[in-house]
Write a structure and sequence with these properties.
15 helices; 299 residues; Tetracycline Repressor, domain 2
């Protein structure tokens, strides 16, 4: 075999590896894994062995990856109708849309839940399962093509990750992890609706009843601002239950930035202001999670 053939084989292998990794939506999975670790960090008195922390992180990541893969498997037909998703591997044929993937997805989820059960506890394992179940079944199968409020209920996936992290240390979560789970629940709608406004034509052509498709861009933009205000208000509630100045700085700084961008979206709805609001939501969540972690570790 000459070097040209070896190089071509190597490129094909690398391309398949990238396609497989993209199937599992690992960027979203890593974010959800981080929220689980933050749930652990804000749980008072949490004390775990390093191997338990590792199992928590990997079980949440793998469960999220299995749900992400199922989402792409189930939606390959509608993905073909949207510019944002038409290059996904099941759409292009880079990976075969074969039922064997469903077996792999089930095995990954079972392994993640089982590892959490045996290494942590049954409550943490239940939350790991519920996070994947709500994204894969409740959001993807039951609600996405039926209701404009699909992403609201689907947002519970992130909340369950926070609760999994808290339950790993204490099966009965205290007020701080519960409030952080509420914040994650309230964060998902304005985050995703901002993106949906920017990509309204895609969802409309695919027949997906995202909020801006159902109520119009202008009204959806106003709802994004109102839901952002509710999110920021909820993010300040932990200050009444022991969160300190580090948390306050992150919640207020990130929250003000998101409010400012979502107000601009409500005032001048456009793709540009919608994407600015979407990116502001990521900054807000990042600031909040970092601040919550530091506050929890230093308290």
């Amino acid at each position: 075999m000459n070097t040209t053939t070896l190089g071509s084989t190597g490129r094909r292998t690398a391309r398949v590896a990238r396609d497989v990794l993209s199937l599992f939506k690992l960027r979203i999975g890593v974010l959800i894994m981080v929220t689980a670790l933050v749930g652990l960090a804000v749980t008072p008195g949490a004390s775990m062995q390093p191997v338990q922390v590792l199992v928590l992180a990997l079980s949440v990541l793998v469960a999220s990856a299995s749900a992400g893969a199922f989402n792409q498997y189930a939606e390959h037909d509608s993905d073909a109708l949207m510019a944002r998703t038409r290059r996904r591997a099941f759409v292009t044929g880079a990976l075969p849309h074969h039922p064997a993937w469903l077996l792999l997805i089930v095995l990954l989820l079972a392994g993640a839940v089982g590892a959490a059960w045996f290494t942590l506890n049954g409550i943490a394992a239940m939350y790991v399962f519920l996070g994947a179940f709500f994204y894969a079944v409740v959001y993807t199968v039951w609600l996405k093509r039926r209701s404009a409020w699909n992403i609201v209920v689907g947002g519970l996936a992130g909340s369950f990750a926070v609760l999994a992290g808290a339950a790993a240390a204490d099966p009965t979560p205290g007020p701080l992890p519960l409030l952080l789970a509420l914040v994650l629940f309230l964060w998902t709608p304005p985050h995703f609706w901002s993106l949906a406004i920017a990509n309204r034509a895609d969802y409309e052509s695919a027949g997906v009843p995202m909020l801006p498709v159902v109520v119009g861009t202008e009204r959806a933009a106003r709802i994004v601002f109102a839901s952002t205000a509710a999110l920021v208000a909820a993010s300040l509630l932990p200050l009444a239950f022991g969160a300190g100045p580090i948390y306050a700085a992150g919640a207020m700084g990130g929250g003000f930035h998101f409010l400012r961008k979502s107000w601009a979206l409500a005032a001048r709805p456009s793709r540009a202001t919608a994407m600015a609001s979407f990116f502001a939501s990521l900054i807000q969540l990042s600031a909040l999670l970092v601040a919550a972690t530091l506050d929890g570790l230093l308290r």
